[in-house]
Amino acid sequence: MSGPILITVAAVLAVAGVIAAVFVVRTRRVVATPTERAVHAALHTASQAARALREGLGPDSARARPLRICAH
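and the corresponding structure tokens:
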């Protein structure tokens, strides 16, 4: 291979590697930090309680399972 072609191939491979690394980091599905876990838990609880709370908070919706306090 000649010099310019080799440099072009190396540059294309380097750019492809950077794109792949960014893709892997941006699409990770792991909740890693304590803050991320707390946010995930709060959003998960809120999504589960949404159905019971559509009519507002009342005696029936307050007894909904996602709203009960559980010690983990």
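(Above: one complete record from the training split.) The chain has two domains: 1-30, 32-72.
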